[in-house]
Structures are given as structure tokens and as C-alpha cells.
Amino acid sequence: MLFAPRLPADYAVWMGEIKPLSHFQEKYKVTQVFYTDEIKEVFFDQYQATGTPLLFLLHGLNTDSNKYSKPAEFQGIEKFQTDLNTLHPILTECRVIKSNLELALIQYANDISSEAHVEVMRKTKVGMKEYQLESMFLHHTYMYGGCRHCSYTCICATGENSAVLHYGHAAAPNDKSSEKQSAKRTQSYIRHASICDDFLTMLCFNFVFFSVVENPTPPQGPPVFRKAVASSL
Q1: Do the Cβ atoms of 131 and 173 come closer than 8 Å?
Q2: Residue in 158, 213, 148 with CA at minimum distance from that of residue 187
Q3: Rounded CA gap, 199 and 156, in Å?
Q4: pTM score of the predicted model
Q5: Could you please report the per-residue DSSP string of 9-71?
Q6: Long-range contacts of range 199-203, CB-CB < 8 Å, 24 or more positions apart?
Q7: Rg of the chain's alpha carbons, rounded to an integer?
Q8: How buried is 48 (Cβ within 10 angstroms: 0-12 exposed, 13-18 middle, 19+ buried)?
Q9: Tell me: the pLDDT tens digits for 47-88?
């Protein structure tokens, strides 16, 4: 069962066609779809037992932010009993187990992100601005992967900026010029179908680090490492 908002007629002028309920039923493969202003009536119609219906609402601690998720609200919810404790640990555990479709989406996001990082490495030239590296990454993921959004601003750090963990924000907006033989670090986070790929890879440690030189010296490092880098480029 799915509930969709009932949109006003002028929505179509600004945002486009107002989809019928049948559209959401087909898109999300559910058996029934109603409007959100019908929640109370639908729940009472579906309830077959005696007494007051019990609703399980999502409410629990996010251990990363130390904030609690906000339980759902709708007009008439005071007519129901509510349980704020049962659902959160169940859904948290569900996130650990991925379906084959979810795994395929995660793999796709990783593949597109990997391709974009390699594309940036191929096209980076001495004297480029960091935001040009960011632009190349965003273009590739959208043009060839259909991934419209990044979950955070791309980190395209050169030189000493590579040591700043969250470089690329508004106060440090990927605006330095790359210099000859300076280290480059790219870190980006793309979204595809709400699947996020946090691609922190490094040719040495945890990020993509590479160097741009005008006259490269003979290959350095172990043969296996050189082969892996060469095959990616």
C-alpha cells in the first residue's frame, strides 16, 4: 500500500503533468495507492480487529549524527495507538541485507564513479583549476552514467590542499591551479537511483592520488602496482 500527495491543479503549470494514482501503482509495483489525505480513513477501513488500531512508526537514534528520526505524522493520527520502538531496529537490520537488484545498483554506481575518476586522471593538465577536474568528473557521471547528483561536493585537491579531508566546500571551493608534479587527490560521491557510492580510492592509501608531469620519468614502484595503474589508464 502506498500513499501519494494530492497535488493542486496549478502544480501542472510549474512542475508538469500530475500523475494519476495508477501511475504510482505501476511504477512501484504495489497493490493499492491512495492519497495522503485519506490515510486515516483507509487504515480504519483496512482494520478488521476490535479496539484502536496500532501503528508502528519509524523513530530511533542515528548513531552517526546522534539525532533521532522524526516519526510520520498525518491528520487524524491521534485516533491511533503508536509504537515508536519496534520498527527502527527491524529496518536498520534490513539495510544490512541487499537484494540482487540493490547489489546491481551499487555495482553500477561504483563502475561509473571508477570510470569518471580515470577520465579525470587522463585529461588533467598542468595549470588546470581544481574546479575543472570537478567539472570533468560531473560531466562523465551524468553524460555517460545518467547520475545527476553527487551526495557531496567533489573533492579535487592539488598540492597541499590534498591534506585537507573535506576540501572543496564553499570556503575552499576547488579553485587552486594544478602545478607541475604536485599531488592530485580526487574524491567524489555519486548517486544513482538513490544508491550512493562513496569512492575513496587511492593509488597508495585511501584516495585517488596522482601526479601530473610534463616530462614523466621512468615508471616507479613495484611491477604489479605499475601494471594496475597502466591498465586503468
Answers
A1: yes
A2: 158
A3: 13
A4: 0.72
A5: TTHHHHH-PPPPHHHHHHHHT-S-EEEGGGHHHHHHHH--SSS--EEE----EETTTTEEPPP
A6: 199/110, 199/113, 199/114, 199/117, 201/114, 201/117, 203/229
A7: 25
A8: exposed
A9: 988 889 999 999 999 888 999 999 999 999 999 999 999 999
